[in-house]
Amino acid sequence: MPWLPMYVNKDDASLLLTLLNEDTDIAYIISNGKKKWRVIETIENLEDGRYCIWHVSSGPLPLVGGFRKDTYVKNPWSGWKEKKTGADPTQPYFGSGHPSIIWLNLFTHSTREPNKIGLSSFEWIGNHYKSIGRPAPDITKKWWRILRKSIAKVSIKLSRVDDQKLKNEIYTFPNAAEEIKNGKERAENPDVIDYS
Predict the structure, then answer these.
(1) 159-182 tens-digit pLDDT
(2) Which of 180, 163, 81 is nearest to 171 (CA)?
(3) Are 6 and 172 in contact (CB under 8 A)?
(4) Ramachandran angles phi, psi of 148, nearest 5°
(5) Burial of 114 (0-12, 13-18, 19+ CB in 10 A)
(6) Strands (E) located in the chain
(7) Which of 83, 102, 145, 148 might form a disulfide with 53, Cβ 3.0–4.6 angstroms?
(8) Helices and strands in the chain: count of H runs, count of E runs
(9) pTM of the predicted structure, to 2 decimals
(10) Which of 2-6, 27-31, 124-128 is the least confident region?
(11) 40 touches 30 (CB < 8 A)
(12) pLDDT of the residue at 122
C-alpha cells in the first residue's frame, strides 16, 4: 500500500493545506450529519486528525450496500447517506479500500508523546486489490506521483531518529525541520487512530 510519511508541525499545516486546496483533481469528503456525507472542494484549516480525500478524476464513489451489489453515489457534491458504516462511524466508508480514496493522517504532535512532532502520512490502497479485478486507475497512479513530487519540493527527507545508518525516508516540512534541527524530538512511529 503506497504511503507518504511526513513530519509537519502546526506552522507547516498551512503550507500543506495550500498544496491540497490548489489541487483541482481532489476534493474532501466531510460529515453532513449522522451517516451522511458530502464533498467539498476546499477546507479552511487543517487540524490534527484523519481526512478523507477523493481523487475526483478516478471515477464515482461507491455506495456500499451490504448484501446487495454496490452502487455509486449519484451526486457527491449534494451529499448522500451511507447504507453501511465502517469501523469508525466518524469516517466515510467505501469498503475495504477503494482506489479513488486517499487518507491524510495529520499529527503535528504525537498523541502518545505530546512533546514530539507526530508522524503524519498520506495513505492510499493503490493496486492492493488488482489481483481481484480492482486495480488503481492510471490517472490516480499519476496523481499520486505528482503528490509525492509536490511534497518533495517543499520538504527535505530525514530519518526517524538521528542515526547516520538509517535511511532518510520521512518528508519533513520546513518548520518541522527547523524544530528538529534545534533539538525537537520526533515520533518514530505513526500515531494510532482511535476508532472507539
Answers:
(1) 987 666 667 899 999 999 999 999
(2) 180
(3) yes
(4) -60, -45
(5) exposed
(6) 3-7, 26-31, 36-40, 49-55, 62-63, 71-72, 80-81, 101-106, 119-124, 156-158, 170-172
(7) 102
(8) 3, 11
(9) 0.92
(10) 124-128
(11) yes
(12) 97
Buried b (16+ CB within 10 A) or exposed e, 56-95: bebeebbbbeeeeeeeebeebeeebebeeeeeeeebbbbe
Q: Which residues of 13-35 are buried (b: 16+ CB within 10 A; e: fewer)?
A: bebbbeebeebebbbbbeebeee
End-to-end C-alpha distance for the chain, whole angstroms: 24
Domain positions in the chain: 3-181
- Cα separation, 19 vs 183, in Å, equals 27
Tell which residue, 83, 78, 8, 81, has the closest CA to residue 40: 78
Residues 6+ apart with CB under 8 A from 75: none
pLDDT of residue 28: 98
Burial class (CB in 10 A: 0-12, 13-18, 19+), 190: middle
Q: Are 90 and 30 in contact (CB under 8 A)?
A: no
Residue-level length of the chain: 196
Q: How far apart are CA 126 and CA 145, in angstroms?
A: 11
